Amino acid sequence: MRADTRHGRPRRPTLFPYRPGPRAAHRAAVLALVAAVAGCAAPADPGAPPGGGATGGAQGPAARAAAPQHLPERPRRHTSRALPRRLPGLGPRTLARLPAHTRQALLVTGTGRNTSSARAVLYTRSAQGWRPGATWPARNARDGWTDDHHADDLRTPIGVFTLTDAGGRRPAPGTRLPYDRSNAFTATGRGFNGESLAGSFDYVIAIDYNRRPGTSPLDWRRPLGAARGGGIWLHVDHDGPTHGCIALSEQHMKELLHLLDPARHPVIVMGDAASLER
């Protein structure tokens, strides 16, 4: 090191002796010293990857001077998955029953033809495809599913049905569906497992099987005749299989009531997995 006493005052000692050389090599040496003092490898080009070249090691001054000023941009990775263009798990026969203008579909898939357990997912359609919501546990009729439902057969009808009307013993939790608040939505007695049915009809959504859409779920007119059954609803789960309805937890019923939008023409697609795949 040497001190410069020009103008009578000592100049700060230089950190390294000056050696003549090409301007590019000199600039590279300065950058290398700054990086060493800072404790990290700072790339010469802000667009270059941290940590040096492709091998991840630090680059020396000569390599930095020779490096290109602009590295090619790395291809971007798309982290979002493409939405399905059709509802998953449905075969051509089931898909043909789906109204073309429907943009909301509650897909209820049974675990077996003769079982009472199922899962429910609300799908919403956009220009990108069908977006699924959360998966909810569900129950259906005690003896499973049927393509030919009749009164008191203890099976849930398979098919695609519109969802147009709601109601319940409790006030509406917030819904765009027409909602009939009535004390007539009162369930009494015991279920198949001996569980109390109280509260099962606190919240109800009518499934438009053998009923007139646009009326209260309490409307008991049956266009197909009384022998074909009716009163097939979505209602609050009572911890046991149903006579023919679909049951969800109280919280999920409230969420569903909040999410369903008549402007999106909601439907329910329900049945055991094997039947829906046809």
UniProtKB/TrEMBL annotation:
It comes from the Bacteria. Keywords: Cell shape, Cell wall biogenesis/degradation, Peptidoglycan synthesis. It holds the Pfam family YkuD. Residues 1-21, 48-93 are annotated as: Disordered. GO terms for biological process: cell wall organization; peptidoglycan biosynthetic process; regulation of cell shape. Residues 50-59 have a biased composition (Gly residues). Pathway: Cell wall biogenesis; peptidoglycan biosynthesis. Residues 75-84 have a biased composition (Basic residues). The active site is at H235 (proton donor/acceptor), C245 (nucleophile). Residues 109-270 form the L,D-TPase catalytic domain. One of its GO terms (molecular function) is transferase activity. This is L,D-TPase catalytic domain-containing protein. It comes from Streptomyces sulfonofaciens.
